[in-house]
Amino acid sequence: MASQCFVRPTFDNPFLNIEELPGDTIIRKPEPLTQANSDPNGTSLVISKDIDLDINKKTWLRIYVPRRIITNHDDEKLPVIFYYHGGGFVFFHAHSFFWDLFCQGLAGNLGVMVIALEFHLAPENRLPAAYDDAMDGLYWIKST
User: Fold this and answer.
1) Per residue in 79-133, pLDDT tens?
2) In Å, what is the CA distance from 45 to each residue of 50, 51, 94, 104?
3) What is the spatial distance between Cα 29 and Cα 26, in angstroms, rounded to a whole number?
4) Which pairing describes strands 59-66 and 46-54: parallel, antiparallel, or unpaired?
5) What is the Cα–Cα distance from 58 to 52, expressed in whole angstroms?
């Protein structure tokens, strides 16, 4: 029986935005990111704003609210969707273009408040860092 040799995975998928460097290190390539849309006079159906969750950990939340709530000075309580962006705790950000667009769609079409969390990504931050960030976000909702 031949012995099997472990082969490290390589990051050769261009959509991953990760480049492998010598010495078992990686760097993330830039990806399209979006700014919060907090202009109350704009034409977008959704207003968004970034709020620091933990300055020391550099975690934050992006809150999306249907514009009609702001412009009508409506005190209506909205259902809340707390959104953890996709990427397996390794890829993307709360302000990645397609996740931002998705959250805007949820808020605008469903008439809900969406809160998206920016959490620490692996492999730069080992688990359970992302889970701890997720719990911090839930505690923030409970206390706010």
Assistant:
1) 999 999 988 888 889 999 989 999 999 999 999 999 999 999 888 888 899 999 9
2) 17, 20, 19, 8
3) 10
4) antiparallel
5) 8
Name the pTM for this structure. Answer: 0.80
Q: Which residue has the tokens 């931002």?
A: 100
Burial call 70-107: b when 16+ CB within 10 Å, e when fewer:
eeeeeeeeeeeeebebeeebebbbbbbeebbebbbebb
List, for residues 48-79, the tens digit of each pLDDT value.
999 999 999 999 999 999 988 877 776 778 99
Torsions phi, psi for 44 (to 5 deg): -65, 150
Are 18 and 29 spatial neighbours (Cβ–Cβ below 8 Å)? Answer: yes
102: CB partners within 8 A, 6+ apart: none
